[in-house]
Amino acid sequence: MQSFNAKLCSPSDFLGWRSLSRDFLSRQVEASAVHWSIQETETLYAPQSERILPNASSPLKIPRFFGRLISSVFASAIPDRFDRLYRSLEHIQKYGEPSATDLKDFEQIAAEVRAQILRLRSTFPENRIADWQIIRTDCPPQLTDSQIGPLSRLRTAPWILLSDHRTLCWNGQDYRIGPAMTDADAPHADLVHQALQTATATRANAYWHELGTVHVTPTEENTREVQSLPHLRSLAVDCSFCDLCHHATCTVFGEGSETASILFVGEQPGDQEDLQGRPFVGPAGKLFDRALREAGGDRHEAWISNAVKHFKFVQKGNRRIHQKPGTTEMHACAPWISAERRLLRPRVTVMLGVTGASALLGRPVTVSRERSRLFKLDDDSIGLVTVHPSYLLRLPDENAKTREYIKFVADLRMAISALA
Ligand code: URA
Predict the structure, then answer these.
(1) Domain assignment of residue 41, yes or no
(2) Which parts of the chain register pLDDT below 70?
(3) Per-residue model confidence (pLDDT) at position 171
(4) Beta bridge mates, 170
(5) 279 lines ligand 1 (CB under 6 A)
């Protein structure tokens, strides 16, 4: 029997594995005749590089859920995974569906990979720590590489991921990929400098095009089970509870002190928040920060979040115009803020504007009627409704603006004094 050497250029070479597999399948090459191996090419870490692969299209129809399992198994540490996966495709080619054994094994492997991904993601610091962060991991390169997309949306601010196999640099805009660093214990500033020099490959290098991204696709049940805020944030990266995720840059999760006793809930991220991956950092956020300081509070000691976690907008030319979230989006997003409240257990929750208040109270709210008083929430903690800071920004009249701002600060002060 003729044998075939199938050489991949790295443990995360999903593109190579997929095109070779398609080619073998279309030529009916049996799995036992294929010898998979990894052989790094010289240009693997070059800034740019072309690559020639067989371009057979898929001779199989692979169910979507099985495609997702394939990516997960590919990112696992199973030593013979290239062969196992090719055999699973061969089975589909022969019998029209995956084997029961493959399904069972792959689901178990996928669950382990998912847990590892969430652990890796939860070690990433929040975006409010804006400068370069160095994160170390013992995850295998196929797992870290499978997270290249999600990790840049989890932490949009710069970071460097170091492992025994790989150096990944995200500068806030682009990736650089390189081999492991030789002196990974140097002081912080040197490490950043060295990592940027070590990681020379860009995504324009064809070896780093398709890395078989693994999404953890959260469910509402997952949000109820999670036991920490970093874990919840790690899940929220892949949120697709409504269609807003398809257009926004990233999920803007809550941020602040995990021991905060006060929670502020706004509506949804705006343009700046969407780009920076942080709540309340645009014009409304700046006004909110000022008012909170005047009221005697400090945003770093609070937890700041939104009822809806993705930016809803319409594109007009090169401007993105804010759109109010509808009830469908508010309902779809509700599990996140409930989980944040369950994990944070704030003594006081301040609802900023109609969306934050309606989402939290689960009923329509008229802010002018319900604002400026403390009341009990379902869990016996204290709630307070006030206006949204963007309402103050929109007031055309300077006198009204000043008057309303003073009332807003008084509301925030009332909430803070309820902590005493
Ligand atoms: N408005 C909000 O409700 N939330 C933000 O994060 C920013 C603006």
Answers:
(1) yes
(2) none
(3) 96
(4) 159, 175
(5) yes
Instruction: Find out whether the beta carbon of 389 lies less than 6 Å from any atom of ligand 1.
Output: no
16 lines ligand 1 (CB under 6 A): no
d(CA 390, CA 356): 13
Residue 362, pLDDT score = 95
Tell me what pLDDT residue 72 has: 98
Q: What is the pLDDT of residue 187?
A: 87
Summarize pLDDT for 366-379 with one digit per residue, the tens.
Answer: 999 999 999 999 99
Q: Say if strands 262-266 and 255-256 run parallel, antiparallel, or are unpaired.
A: unpaired
Q: What is the pTM of this model?
A: 0.94
* pLDDT for the residue 59: 84
Q: What is the DSSP string of 297-359?
A: --GGGSEEEESS-S--EEEETTEEEE----HHHHHHHHHHHHHHHHHH--SEEEEEHHHHHHH
Ligand 1 pocket check for 269: Cβ under 6 Å: yes
How much distance in Å is there from the Cα of 348 to the middle of ligand 1? 19
Residue of 280, 324, 336 to mutate, ligand 1, most atoms within 8 A of C-beta: 280
Statement to judge: residues 133 and 268 lie in one domain: no
Q: Are residues 161 and 195 in the same domain?
A: yes
Answer yes or no: is 344 within a domain.
yes
Q: Judge contact between 350 and 384, C-beta under 8 A.
A: yes
Pocket test of ligand 1: the residue of 128, 265, 267, 309 to mutate, having most ligand atoms within 8 Å of its CB, is: 267
**325 and 270 in one domain?**
yes
Which of 188, 208, 228 finishes a domain?
Answer: 208
CA of 277 from ligand 1 middle (Å) equals 11
268 close to ligand 1 (CB < 6 Angstrom): yes
Do 101 and 137 fall into the same domain? no
Residue 121: per-residue pLDDT:
98
DSSP-based three-state secondary structure for 210: coil
If one counts the domains in the chain, the total is 3
pLDDT score of 96 = 94
